[in-house]
Amino acid sequence: MSDPDAWARACAEDLEAEKARRRAERGAGPGSAAEEFRKLFDAVAGKVSEGFGNPLLAGQAARTVQQLVQQAKAAVEPVVERNPQVFDHLAAAGGELLAAYRSAVEGHETRWTRKDAPAEEPPKPPREDGEGPGTGQHIDLD
């Protein structure tokens, strides 16, 4: 007698093996939003510090920037440690804002690019009395 769940188990094993192969190929996936924020902060701090490797900007300016980077890192790190879920919420909120923006833009693009959209109203010719557009009635301001 054959096992009725053998196919399901084989598929699940194949899927897990494929996932493991892809993880090994690409390396670890992105971490939590807090971990990604730390990586971003470290990368930006490194680039700022490298930017002051220029001999013209070296010296006191480089030391000042490095000191500011270290102070910022010391201020941010405890916040990230205490509230890692905040960054997850901020990342989710950013995704929602991006989705809302895309939706709005797609709606406008659809209206702008429709071929059956009504043509714009042609501009009105200037009035014969030289005044701007209007009813043609004189308004006494006195």
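[next item in queue]
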Amino acid sequence: MIKLFVVGYPLDIQEADLMDIFSIHGAIHSIELLRDKVTQRHKGFGFVEMEDQADADRAIAAVNGMVLKGRKIRVKLADEDRAERPRTFKTNHFHSQELQGNASSDASNTESFKNKRPRKLMSNTFRAEN
């Protein structure tokens, strides 16, 4: 089975409509359109499993870029090894509790705050007068 990632389809589309579009290009094993758990509305992406690679290639070539109800559909091969790869996260820009527990970092942080002047508060005296 070859899994295709489909995104950008209209949110009011049904699985049967996508089956009609993809079945022209080859045999379909399954279609899964992801929905929100609370509202049960489509999230706008899903997966289509095709029977073989040739059918999947034909479907990608034909459906990728197709405009349906004013929305452009994009189709590509799904990352099968996504679960095996570790996710990468951006570094945290805030100091963790471990760093704040260090006395030298606390002293340097408080000294840098002492050297700064407080923000000047703006009063309402600068109103435009007619």
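[queue empty]
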